[in-house]
Amino acid sequence: QETFEKVVQARNQAMVASTPGDKGQAENFLASALKSLFALAEAYPDLKANKNFHDLQDELSNIEEHIQLARRYYNAVVRDLNTKIETVPSNIVANMFNFETKEYFELDSEEERE
Fold first, then answer.
1. How far is CA 32 from the centre of its chain?
2. Which of 3, 23, 82, 84 could form a disulfide with 101 if both were Cys (CB 3.0 to 4.6 A apart)?
3. Of the candidates 112, 94, 90, 110, the residue with the CA atom closest to the CA atom of residue 102
4. Which is it for the CA torsion 82, 83, 87, 91, positive or negative?
5. d(CA 22, CA 35)
6. In this structure, are residues 48 and 8 in contact, taking their beta carbons and an 8 Å threshold?
């Protein structure tokens, strides 16, 4: 019961996160909650053998891969933008229009970055 509540809470937190930093923290919390859920499933062979639960695990794994690709793409675009904002001659235009450097989408642990 508590594990499911953590997953729901993590999902809700992820839905309302607005900045990349908040979204990163929410993703960390959600990943942790899902790991707890899957660890709990190990204790219940019937649940572990259930096709729907297995499909859910596969789908979540697929979603994690897509999120990781999107995070890498976002960070590459932010890196390019920040570089242009800080280098001549594009920094002149950036200053004229008040462009600001953006925050990277970072994860807390090295394990989650892989």
1. 11
2. 82
3. 94
4. negative
5. 20
6. no
Sign (positive or negative) of CA dihedral 3, 37, 110, 106: negative
Helix/strand number for the chain, H first, E second: 6, 0
Q: Do residues 103 and 19 lie in contact, with contact meaning Cβ atoms separated by under 8 Å?
A: yes
Q: What is the pLDDT of residues 33-81, one digit of tens each?
A: 788 878 877 888 887 788 888 888 888 888 888 888 888 999 999 999 9
pLDDT tens across 4-29, in order?
787 778 778 877 877 877 877 878 88
- Where do we find the tokens 């942790």? 32
Tokens of 39: 């660890």
Element (H, E) at 36: helix 20-42
